[in-house]
Amino acid sequence: MTSFALALSVGALGGLGAVTRFTIDTQIKRVYKAAFPLTTLVINIIASFLAGMFAAMAAAGTLAPDPKLILATGFCGGMSTFSTAINEIVTLLAKERYAVAAGYVACCIVVPVVCAMLGYAVA
Amino acid sequence: MSISHDAHDAPGAGTADDAGAAAPDTAQGAATRPYDALTDWGVYLSVFVGGFFGTLVRYWLSVVMPQNGADGGVMYWGTFTANILAAFIYGCVAAYLGAATWLGARRRECTNRGLGMGFCGGLSTMSTFAVEQFTQLSSAGGTPETGGVPGGVAFVVYVSVTFILGVLLAYAGSVLGARLAQGHAAGASSAGKAGTGDSATKGAQA
């Protein structure tokens, strides 16, 4: 794959990942109104799990470098988000929901890496 | 600080929800809420385009900046830079748009989704970050002989620095965004009074 085609594919899958995130976020928020940012966490859980899987497949040689890049850096990277999570933390702190903020920070630190490990293990 | 959370809640799920529920295909739905049908695809497109460019920038950063956070190193500079930058921009955009009452609702929605959810969401990543953390935890890292940093230490430093700087920069971004919006509003209202040629007032407000 030419580096231009590769970059284009990574970007396109990133865009798709972002749209997927937007869709899931909108759907969950229709029924879920609590302060804890569950939508972002769910999205990051899925993306981190997939990224762990792709990492294992790449390490095992069942996924070539280019497709791995497109799927992991592109799709998973586009679907997952750090900026939304951080700004949700700032918003919670601004609303003085300190307990929720602390819980959410703890989740953001622990949950994604655990999901990546699980994805890696099951692949 | 209230601006920050207003921006987060405001062009939020509300408008997109109504757009989805309005069944834009029906003539009645289109007649009563003429912009919602367009908002639907416009928002999706904004998110896609934003995500496309955000992801490309993140990819580029991961290639040009050192990414040796394990095996003796500490930071994945590419991922870190992308994440911190995205946190700052998102904070700025959200605060600015929250106060940008001179823009129409649809414009704000598309911009917020495109720049925030799209570009910043694509620029930042939690999945790559998670795999990097996993790599750090499972790597022995450096030893006293090689002079590198143990994997566990690298993990603690990388995660702490990323989150602390992320929150600080997001807050700084929101302050900047609010100031920019205030400045723009002040400039606009002075321009409205420009008939009196009162440039002194404009200067004082700016």
Describe it for me?
The complex is a heterodimer of chains A (123) and B (206). Chain A is mainly α and 123 residues long. Chain A has one domain. Helices cover 85% and strands 0% of the residues of chain A. Chain A contains 5 helices and no strands. Chain A has helices spanning 3-31, 38-60, 65-79, 83-94, 98-122. The longest helix of chain A is centred in the N-terminal third of the chain and has 29 residues, at 3-31. Chain A is globular. The two termini of chain A are 25 Å apart. By secondary structure, chain B is mainly α. Chain B has a domain at 41-66 and 74-138. In chain B, 75% of the residues lie in helices and 0% in strands. Chain B has 9 helices and no strands. The longest helix of chain B has 42 residues, at 151-192. Chain B starts with a helix and ends with a helix. Chains A and B meet through helix 1, helix 2, helix 3, helix 4 and helix 5 of A and helix 1, helix 2, helix 4, helix 5 and helix 6 of B.
Topology:
The complex is a heterodimer of chains A (123) and B (206).
Chain A: H1 3-31, H2 38-60, H3 65-79, H4 83-94, H5 98-122
Helix pairs in contact in A: 1-3, 2-3, 2-5, 4-5
Chain B: H1 2-9, H2 13-21, H3 27-32, H4 36-64, H5 77-99, H6 105-123, H7 127-138, H8 151-192, H9 199-205
Pfam families (chain B): CRCB
Transmembrane segments (chain B): 41-61, 81-103, 115-131, 151-172
GO molecular function (chain B): fluoride channel activity; metal ion binding
Quick recap:
Chain A: It is found in: Cell membrane. With about 120 residues, chain A is an all-alpha fold.
> In percent, how helical is the residue content of chain A?
over 70%
- Amount of beta strand of chain B: under 5%
Q: How do the helices and strands follow one another from N- to C-terminus of chain B?
A: HHHHHHHHH
Order of helices and strands of chain A: HHHHH
Largest sheet of chain B: none
Can you tell me the residue ranges of chain B where pLDDT is under 50 for at least 5 consecutive residues?
1-24, 28-32, 197-206
How would you sum up the major sheet of chain A?
none
Q: Largest chain-chain contact?
A: A-B, 56 and 59 residues
Gyration radius of chain B (Cα, Å) is 22 Å
Helical amount of chain B: over 70%
